[in-house]
Structure formats: structure tokens, C-alpha cells
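Let us practice reading a record.
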Amino acid sequence: MKYPPFCDIIKLEVSGLSQNEVKRTITLAYENLLKNENRNMLIYSPMPSPVNKIKNKYRWRIIIKCKIGNNVITEINDAIDKIKTNASISIDINPNNMN
């Protein structure tokens, strides 16, 4: 099932004032991750966060399950660095809360 402590969970979250910009950014991040996908990474499709709007900012996320290593961090950074956006992108490794 790939749950901790046997693997790590990474939450990649995009938030912003424009819902269209947030969706575009999360879709680009997902596509970039799939291009570089490591066989040991399980990448779930983008979805709205459970609380999808806070303080007028829309939030979407991608969940990734894998064992953390330098190659995984490099792949995620490469996927994000290619994106030009006004939205905020955050990465949380083994989050305490999935909201």
C-alpha cells in the first residue's frame, strides 16, 4: 500500500487567487513529474485540497508516494522550476495534516 514508515509521502500544493492559474500550474507540475517519473514514485492525479479555498486563495494538490532520496528531490525541483506562474507552490514531506 506504500504508507509510512515503508515509504514517504510528499504533498505538492499550489495556491493562488485565480482558480484557472492554480489549475494550470498544478496540471503543468503533474505533466512535468510524469515526464521524469522514477519507477519508485507513485504520483496521484491533481485534485482540489479538502479545504479548497482559504482567504480567497484556491488550493490544489498532488500526492506523491516514494522513498525520499536526492534523485527524488531533484526530479521534483526540476518539474517545478520549468513552470512560470503567479501561484504559490509548496512542498511538504510527510505532512502531519493532509488538508
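A brief commentary: Strands lie at 8-16, 42-43, 47-54, 57-66, 88-93.
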